[in-house]
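Hi there,

I know you've been waiting on this one. I reran it after we fixed the sequence typo, so this is the corrected version. Both the input and the resulting structure follow.
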Amino acid sequence: MVSKKILKNKIKQAFPFLTPAYRFLKYGVRIMRWVPTYDEDDLITNHLCDFLEDDRFIKSLATTEKEGHLQLGYVVRWRLYTACWAADHAKNLDGDFVECGVAYGATSRMIMEYIGFKNISKKFYLLDTYEGLDERYLSQDERLRLVEYKKTGSYPYTSAMYPFVKKAFGSFPNVTIVKGAVPETLGQVKSEKIAYLHIDMNCTVPEIAAAEYFWPKMVKGAVMLLDDYGFAREQHDAFDKFAKERSIGILSLPTGQGLMIKP
């Protein structure tokens, strides 16, 4: 007797035009009944998303929005939550916080509120040109992507950015704003112990330079969060090489982020 599986495969081979109809019958009803719990930032799921109802997260997001940090016109809540989780882990480690690629400071402000950074005896260094990508370091693909950013309005850099960031974080005595291009400004981070490093510069050369500079300073258990890991092949492959050379792995997240923990 021919098994159902073999018979099904024979039918598919003999009548390939029936495959779309078969798939619709198999998954169509399920899809029509499907109610997502999260649908933004190119990520859709019906898994549990309890962080969306967490009071601490809701308050942090509301504060960040009220103060004007979310100026791109869209919200990336799961990415922000991942950063909050990483910072919440790192606050219990010995070491300071660093963000390379700040823009209007949405991610950094979010986690400062989330973990109560004002009341923590750590420093937070915010590194950015605050004027846009430094074209000296752009590859050809990154130059093309920059053109696309500007066309779609997702390029946030204006002359108002630096004054905004200075004012927004002026009340935080433990925050240091570092203006200029990485890697030239890395030496301005006056800390020999790093617990949290967030890299989001949309450019491979400065991102790898920052990773290589801070990695020896990162304490055991420290977090390196890569915002662009799943979005750009060039950065993805460069960080895979970086990780392989250090015999560790990168957790690829559905948000597009990459997560590394210092062993």
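Quick highlight: The beta strands are 38-40, 43-45, 96-100, 124-128, 175-179, 194-199, 218-226, 251-252, 258-261.

Best,
R. S.
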